[in-house]
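Training component of the fellowship. As part of building independent skills, the fellow (R.M.) carried out the full modelling exercise for a liganded target. The chosen ligand was zinc ion. The inputs are recorded below so that the supervisory panel can assess the work.
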Amino acid sequence: MPSSDAASPGRRFTRRVEDFDCEHCGRHVRGNGYTNHCPACLHSKHVDVEPGDRAADCGGLMTPVAAGMERDAYFVVQRCGRCGHTRRNKTTARDATAEVLKYFGRPIPGR
Ligand SMILES: [Zn+2]
Ligand SMILES: [Zn+2]
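Fellow's submitted model of the complex:
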């Protein structure tokens, strides 16, 4: 079997590029390997323990509950509707800023 990894030495982790349909607003989201939340409504699914590892078997809907700013980047805090797990998600340029700003000023869980 030929190795397809020979052309990319030094790769340290596997980018996962997965498209998905947002369970909240129904938008078809093109995955970019780094984020798995919906850029329109900022919801996602609870599938990661650490970002990108897909190690959680919960699968609940992660709902945005708060947002803030750290250095120059916005982040959104999401809470899983099934198990209550909360996590921070950095936003990206393609996320709807107006949607992020809606959650500013809300209490951030876990602090
Ligand atoms: Zn959505
Ligand atoms: Zn969960």
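The panel noted the following from the submitted structure. Residues 22, 24-25, 27, 38, 40-41, 43 surround zinc ion (ligand 1) (CB under 6 Å). The radius of gyration is 15 Å.
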